[in-house]
TrEMBL record:
SMART domains for this protein: Zn_pept
Domain Peptidase M14 as annotated: residue spans: 101-396
Family of this protein: Belongs to the peptidase M14 family.
Gene Ontology annotations of biological process type: fibrinolysis; proteolysis
Molecular function as annotated in GO: metallocarboxypeptidase activity; zinc ion binding
Active-site positions on this chain: 362 (proton donor/acceptor)
Gene3D superfamilies per UniProt: Zn peptidases
Key word Protease present: yes
PROSITE patterns in alphabetical order: CARBOXYPEPT_ZN_1 (PS00132), CARBOXYPEPT_ZN_2 (PS00133), PEPTIDASE_M14 (PS52035)
Signal peptide: 1-22
Hydrolase as UniProt keyword: yes
Entry GO CC: extracellular space
Entry protein name: Peptidase M14 domain-containing protein
Amino acid sequence: MKTFLVFSFMFNFNTLLRTTECIETDQVLSITPKTQEQVDILKNVSTQRPYGNLLPSNSSKRRPRSTYSFLVLLPNANELIEMQMRNDSSDPRGSTTFYERYHTLDDIYFWLNRTQQDNPSTVKLILIGSSSEKQPLYVLKLSLNDRPNKKAMWIDCGIHAREWISTAFCLWFVRHSLLFYSQNPDITHILDNMDVYILPVMNPDGYKYTWTTNRMWRKNRAVSKSSSCIGVDLNRNFDAEWCTVGASDDPCSEIYCGTFPESEPESQAVAKFLRRHKDSVQLYFSVHSYSQMLLFPYSCTLDEADNHNELLELAQHAAQKIRRFYRNTYKYGAGAKTIYLASGGSDDWAYNLGIKYSFTFELQDSGRYGFLLPPSYIPQACNEALTALKTITLKVIEKTQAPTGPPPAD
Ligand SMILES: [Zn+2]
């Protein structure tokens, strides 16, 4: 039997207690189910309704307390959400504080154009497709020199809409690269040897929806032909043991895999682009939150990847650096054994395509704020991920691009 240790999600007590006089606010609860029945109920709540309807409308707050053991992690989630959205438009774009806040989709599109205009020789915008609601999918290409046969890395952020810190990281990475190239030796060495393709918002429709309607939305916003439920989990929609484990064929599920691999325009655009560039792309990074983990293939099977030990060593090295510099602990390992079995993920798919250094980062935190990480945490969360990314990339450059050693003595 699968054990679910902790579920964290939001309950809208306003909806639940509509019939009572109580005024309640959204809360984030951590619930540990005690029985299989509770596991099943919570599984339904957490996968089908971000605002769970766990209780009948005539129930009282007393009821979950007596039935479930739970902990109120955040007593007033609304306040926290408002704080995350504050000062968005008043912040001058391009200033340091711009990168220490979360931004709307429109602001990110503006930032993309502005960054390209300000750095015409090093930044290129590539339109790789559009979302199901026809929002453009822009990849920002960073290329600091014209060396022939240069290798490249790929970074995607925001595949899951509510993981705002992920998108904040992509912006952070671009700023760091442009600001510290030729000053910081690590980023200079990386950009001298590699181009970088960055997709800051892989799921623009979902991201927009988290700003306008439901902060806890995860999937894209595709309309289903067979159901009134909306959205596909893009990180279950890739062709890696598609929809076999840790995914659902129910359109109402939070981990709905879609109707076939790459059925969604967002995952298809990424897959097409990477197929076209697979000979140059050596490194694949997909950035998520939360839980502080550095993961690598496989997630879709318990089998080990061919270069498992090499990937383990890279992730271990990166986690050690984070611990040393930021005194924060990141778990690391193959996805299936470290977090859970899940098929159709982008990192497994990229690995099978031939990108042998494929990673999924789960950024801060480890559960207190979860997806609602306050903006004041952005700098450290991003710097931790940056440290991991740079550590791994420098090692990969050393392994794959170093001139071969001296010929053996004869
Ligand atoms: Zn995610």
